[in-house]
Amino acid sequence: MDTWSVIIVQIQRFERGIIMNIRKKTKKRQLTYEQKLFAVNEVRLKKRNRQDVADEMEIHINSLTGWLKLYREHGEDALHSHYEKSDLIEHTEELNRLRDIEKKYKEQLIQNEILKKFQAFLKENEKRSASKP
């Protein structure tokens, strides 16, 4: 299909009230195990159309297709996130700890710089007072 054909089809859809579903790009969201299982069950048990379920849940059909494949090959447990919450919490705590250390380090650098300037100031004052009779 050439470019003009696509444009004509989109104009016809627009005129009939079928507007393209255009969403601005948002931050990738992580769906829960329960949400993934619900989507898979809607397709498998209730025999719903994959595209309808994907549209309803505002996910890409490829995500749903991937979950269905995981479910078929490995069962329900495959729908769990590959990031365990305890790992995420541990990494978050470690990141916060490192940020605190970095903040203290920067404060120490500033204090050292102030002390060096103060020492230079004292030396300059000593030289001035030593040179005065």
TrEMBL record:
Any Pfam family hit: HTH_Tnp_1
GO BP of this protein: DNA transposition
GO molecular function: DNA binding; transposase activity
InterPro entries documented for this protein: Homeodomain-like_sf (IPR009057), Transposase_8 (IPR002514), WH-like_DNA-bd_sf (IPR036388)
Membrane-crossing residue ranges in chain numbering: none
Protein's name in the database: Transposase
Species of provenance: Psychrobacillus glaciei
